[in-house]
């Protein structure tokens, strides 16, 4: 049963907490160790979600870490390419190519925005490949993409590639297909706010990119 009020939360978890439930929901206060322990007793595994992210995936780190730590999360998808972090911007460009190879099947590279004229739909090619099960946008891949987008944003490099990758993940989030409907909706709204800060004027991902079959996404 979903608990909505502070009284319901106290009844569920006991009074050995700091009892600031509404502030936790608003993100204005961090729970104490006692509160985290009280919730963990009733909901085993909740502490791992708080410390790392849903399913133990390091989502919170992807959303908030400084750029030097974001490399570790990108390496979750490409563990054999750790040497790329040593070559600066060239490494970031190469990571974009590796993401492209993994997430965009060859047949979609002639046009990154798939348009279904019969249904009037326009889809990111990464999400299209996900819906046809040619790729799988797992939580681990989503965390790596978010980390890559933040890394590009922090160093102001390769944003066209990073934006397209993020838009594909966010399309899956709009259907609750990454971390589940509730977390995906909150995360998608948060990322949309970040995108608006990054592009305060006329930000429209789906109209921003085109790709010819012989022109790589990273080739600007």
Describe the protein.
The chain is mainly alpha-helical and 220 residues long. It has helices spanning 6-13, 21-26, 33-42, 46-51, 59-64, 67-74, 89-103, 125-131, 139-155, 159-173, 181-198, and strands at 113-116, 121-124. α7 packs antiparallel against α9 (139-155) and α9 packs antiparallel against α10 (159-173). The model is unreliable at 114-120 and 201-220 (pLDDT under 50).
Summarize the topology.
Elements: H1 6-13, H2 21-26, H3 33-42, H4 46-51, H5 59-64, H6 67-74, H7 89-103, E1 113-116, E2 121-124, H8 125-131, H9 139-155, H10 159-173, H11 181-198
Antiparallel strand pairs: 1-2
List the helices and strands in order: HHHHHHHEEHHHH
Strand order of the largest sheet: 1-2
**What class do helices, strands and sheet pairing give?**
mainly alpha
* Beginning-to-end CA distance, first to last residue: 52 Å
| Strand coverage percent | under 5%
Report the radius of gyration as a whole number of Å: 20 Å
Average pLDDT rating? 78
Report the strand count.
2
Categorize the overall geometry. Answer: elongated
Low-confidence stretches: 114-120, 201-220
Largest sheet: number of strands, sense, barrel closure: 2 strands, antiparallel
Number of distinct helices = 11
Bin the helical content.
40-55%
Features:
single chain; 220 residues; mainly alpha; two-stranded antiparallel ribbon; 2 strands; 53% helix
């Amino acid at each position: 049963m979903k608990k909505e009020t502070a009284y319901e939360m106290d009844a569920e978890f006991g009074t050995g907490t700091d009892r600031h439930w509404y502030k936790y929901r608003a993100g204005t206060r961090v729970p104490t160790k006692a509160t985290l322990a009280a919730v963990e007793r009733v909901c085993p595994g909740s502490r791992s979600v708080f410390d790392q992210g849903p399913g133990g995936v390091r989502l919170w780190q992807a959303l908030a870490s400084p750029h030097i730590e974001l490399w570790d999360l990108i390496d979750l998808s490409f563990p054999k390419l750790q040497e790329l972090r040593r070559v600066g911007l060239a490494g970031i460009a190469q990571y974009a190519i590796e993401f492209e190879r993994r997430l965009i099947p060859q047949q979609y590279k002639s046009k990154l925005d798939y348009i279904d004229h019969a249904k009037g739909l326009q889809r990111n090619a990464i999400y299209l490949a996900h819906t046809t099960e040619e790729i799988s946008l797992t939580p681990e891949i989503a965390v790596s993409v978010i980390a890559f987008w933040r890394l590009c944003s922090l160093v102001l490099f390769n944003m066209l590639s990073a934006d397209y990758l993020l838009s594909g993940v966010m399309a899956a989030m709009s259907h609750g297909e990454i971390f589940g409907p509730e977390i995906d909706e909150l995360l998608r709204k948060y990322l949309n706010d970040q995108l608006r800060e990054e592009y305060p004027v006329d930000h429209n991902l789906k109209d921003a990119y085109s790709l010819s079959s012989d022109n790589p996404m990273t080739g600007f």
